[in-house]
Amino acid sequence: MIDNENQYPSFDLSYLNQVFQGNKEMIHQIIIMFVKQVPDYFNQMQECVLRADFSALHPLAHKAKSSIAMLGLKDMEAAVLEIEKKSKNGGEGALLENLVSRVLNDYNGISVQLEYLLQE
User: How deeply is 22 buried, as exposed, middle or buried, from its count of CB atoms within 10 A (0-12, 13-18, 19+)?
Assistant: First the structure.
């Protein structure tokens, strides 16, 4: 069973531990999928912001949401939910730009922890 309570404070892997009954290999597979998929969503979000195509953020945020939730990344999940809601109508560009920047920065910090976790 992976215990991240002290080592990885930004994670809460209890959902994955529960679903996979502590199967470290299965949990690692989910984390590997997260590491492969989620950066693409965030990079595409960043491209949308650069193009000021804010309504295109909605489907990307929707796709990323469940992966983020599975890893118990509550703050990132809340920001992605906000992106999903605010981008539905394509408005609030400055807010969306800030939110996308925040989740990208959060992911960059978290990705280091994920890589470390996968090496254990």
Answer: middle
Rounded Cα–Cα distance for residues 52 and 47 (Å)? 8
| CB distance 113 to 11 below 8 Å | yes
Count CB atoms within 10 A of the CB of residue 83.
Answer: 27
Contact 49, 58 (CB under 8 A): no
Residue type, 16: L
| Residue 68: closest CA among 41, 86, 47, 101 | 41
Q: Residue 42: how many CA atoms within 13 Å on its side-chain side? A: 25
Q: Tell me the C-alpha distance between 76 and 106, whole Å.
A: 7
Binned average pLDDT, 10 residues per bin, the chain of 120 residues: 45 91 93 92 95 94 93 92 90 90 90 86
How many whole angstroms separate alpha carbon 96 and alpha carbon 55?
10
List domains and CATH numbers for the chain.
14-119 (1.20.120)
